[in-house]
Amino acid sequence: MARRQPSVLPFCRDDLELLAEMWIAHRGEEEHSVESARRAVEEGRFAEAVTRDYVTILTAVLEGRVVGYVWLTASPLTAHLDVPSLGIEDVYVVPEARGQGVARCLLTAVAGLAQKRGVDHIGCALPTQAKDAHRTLARLGFAAVVTRRVAQTSTLLRRLRGPEARPTNVDQLLLQRRRRAQQRRQVLLGPVAAHS
User: Fold this and answer.
1) Is it the case that residue 55 has pLDDT exceeding 60?
2) pLDDT at 54
3) Residues 6 or more apart in contact with residue 54 via CB below 8 angstroms
4) Which of 29, 68, 108, 159 is deepest in the core (most CB within 10 A)?
5) What number of other Cβ atoms are within 10 A of residue 100's Cβ?
């Protein structure tokens, strides 16, 4: 018996709740905070994000049920080049529908949409640890173009200031604690321990 191909349809506002449930599940599978994702849905930030002008969401329907989605953004390829592109921000297929060609149908629909819009490039950002996804996309013709590194603001500032920077209150407190601990060791162990 031939397996049924999923249909790919534009996101329908009526499917917002179902889409949100799948997005929360996906966040959990990727070991992100499910609570944070739920708050984004409850506070309306998720609904706002999916209805932005530059966002397109396609859903995969198999046997009358939405089983996956692809979240796209329309933007220039880079900030330096005004070359239109589509960015794949997220792809998800529910576990019970995996291995049935759902993701392939979604990506085929993305390529068709890009061609229809006259877009020459489709980009996708992936976590570095997603080795299987990297291999799959490489087989489909995606090439690594840039490496995007991310740093916490506090870490970057601390490292930019360097060792000569004036210590913060926390740094001063830690330094005082280390000195007191060293003085206690000297008292307990004597002068030999202080020099070793």
Assistant:
1) yes
2) 94
3) 73, 74, 75
4) 68
5) 18
